[in-house]
Amino acid sequence: MNDNENKVETEGFSLKALQAGDPEEFSRLVDTYSLKIYRLATKMLSHQQDAEDVLQETFLKAYRGIKSFDGRSKLSTWLFRIATNEALMLLRRKHPETVSIDEPVETEEGEQEPVQIIDWCCLPEGELLSEEAQKMLDSAVQMLPESLRVVFLLRDINDLSTRETGEVLGLSDTAVKTRLSRARLRLREILSTYYGERVYALRQSQQEGLVGSSATGGKKLFLHPRGKTDDE
Amino acid sequence: MMNENHKKHTHKDCRKLLGSLSDYVDGELSEELCSVLEHHMEDCEDCRIVVDTLRKTVYLFHKKSETDSMPADIRQRLFKSLDLEEFIEK
Asked: With bands split at pLDDT 50, 70 and 90, how would you rate the model's confidence at B9?
């Protein structure tokens, strides 16, 4: 019990107080993790109301279940597990035919990811994170299948470690890494399509002399957007 | 493994290396694979671009998520649903 108590202490909470139903301690827990849970929910589910339901349900379940929390995982990992299960259950209810985080991951050989070669890193940050670009980033995440999306959200958006992500989803480290890799590569393709057009537009306007060369910092743009083949 | 004396670049290697790029941008690739990849990239501008844009992809999502916030009314309703109204003001 002492050991468990210490683990929770490292996250700044008293398990004793939480398990005794101390409302002030629980409200601190809510304040610490609600944004992260909400962010996960909004990006897993496209409707804001669904995300809010998941947020409330997560903390309700945590409140009721905290007594049986055994301290074997971090408190935050436990909360993310509840939230992820809630979100996936809701998705399954709405789209029973598509949702599974257990779907077998295809073998490397079976993977036919296109690879676009467009260097868009040189675009100015204002363009990379323009209002329109931010909407594109949101919808790019929505385009990922749930099994990849949930891993990406936990690892890259909510900063969980590979191990913690595995604990939340019941996956091995290797499976987490493989899915994260697939998610990132797919997102990179979507971003390359979008930003590639911006690079073209920028180059075109430079050729027409409308924009000075300073916009790209004089960096050479390497541009051949194509689905790359291995036949060279 | 690649033939180091192979002058002409074969893009078959790129496909094989694709799966290791995510670990590479996280700095978690094994030393051996890391040197294979870096050696490959010396001659392969395509792979350098994929690595750069992959790294930038992760960075942009990170950067964007920093600005995420939870609307005040959602926080209020959350506290109410948990019977924690007295702690809403903080």
From this structure: low
